[in-house]
Amino acid sequence: MSEYTNRRPVSLLDVAKAAGVSRATASLVLRESPLVADGTRQRVVETMKNLGYIYNRGAANLRRNSTGTIGLVLSNIGSPFYSTLMAGVDETNEAGSIVTLVANSVDSPDRQIRQIRRLREHNVDGIILCPAIGSDETLAAELARLDLPCVQALRHAELLGGDYVGADYRSGIEKAVRHLVGSGRRRIVFVGATTLHSAARERNEGFRHAIRMHGLNDGLVVAGAPDNAYDVAALDRLLKARNPPDAAVCYNDVIALDVMNRLRSHGRQPGQDFAVIGMDNLPQAAGAFPALTTIATHPREVGQQAAALLQKRIAQLGPSKGEHIIVPPSLIVRRSCGEASVAA
């Protein structure tokens, strides 16, 4: 049996003695207190590493009545858009020494509730939630029963109320239509229209409002569905019509990239005789041919803001009633509209 098998765990008092400080000072270093001089802090930290000291965070959390963890429940963790949101949440949580536990609802209300219950079983201090399609009173009742601080992100279920952080989808679509009209486009189709959740409805509202503002025909809409699907046959009919559209605003970049391929199959050239705009500014957008004009909705910033708001709620700071933080979008103009890259 090796000497390490019988060795007792290194205590904070051991660290303090080896570093030549009091136990209270070593404890202040663990808590990242500004009261400790930089030289002393560095000496204590180095001593902890050398002795192999392991901080018992679980015991500390029990004393503070918190676990230093939050749950992040998303509808599709495989999407690069949601991955960017996760990165934003993690950046803010890391700065606060908070661990993020991620769950995937796959847009199933039943699975969403199961995931929230499991996160509660792990004693998370709160959750950031992108509500699944079809979320209803059952979700609201469960959150109330669990007494769990919750910030909605990207989508919001009105029945939940409370805090929300998201992009301004409506104004983003309006910016896109304004740009197309300004460049001479008059027959603009919205591809991927759906009303399945709040983010979709706000896109639809933005398009219809912009079309009316500019006095255009508001009937050019191609329906969408989950998983980036849209009515391809309906788009084909419009492209073959006597007076076909000359531009498309798409629900997201994935649909926009598919629409550009569809245009080529009809002998139309995106960026030349047909303008295409997507939404979300995925990495694939800039690398497309032609490079895709898109509405950047800044999911990383949404994630950062949502995590910061949840931390505030957990700490019970500020007003307790629902706070809405809306991140303004940017229109990034690229060759799919016939112009060189600019941001607006």
UniProtKB/TrEMBL annotation:
Q: Which domain of life is it from?
A: Bacteria
Keywords of the record, alphabetical order, are: DNA-binding, Repressor, Transcription, Transcription regulation
**What residue stretches are annotated with the HTH lacI-type domain?**
10-64
Q: Does the keyword Transcription regulation apply?
A: yes
Give the GO molecular function terms.
DNA-binding transcription factor activity; transcription cis-regulatory region binding
Has keyword Cell division? no
**PROSITE patterns for this protein:** HTH_LACI_1 (PS00356), HTH_LACI_2 (PS50932)
Q: Which CDD domains match?
A: HTH_LacI
- Name of the protein described by the UniProt record: LacI family DNA-binding transcriptional regulator
Query: Organism classification, top ranks?
Result: Bacteria, Pseudomonadati, Pseudomonadota, Alphaproteobacteria, Acetobacterales
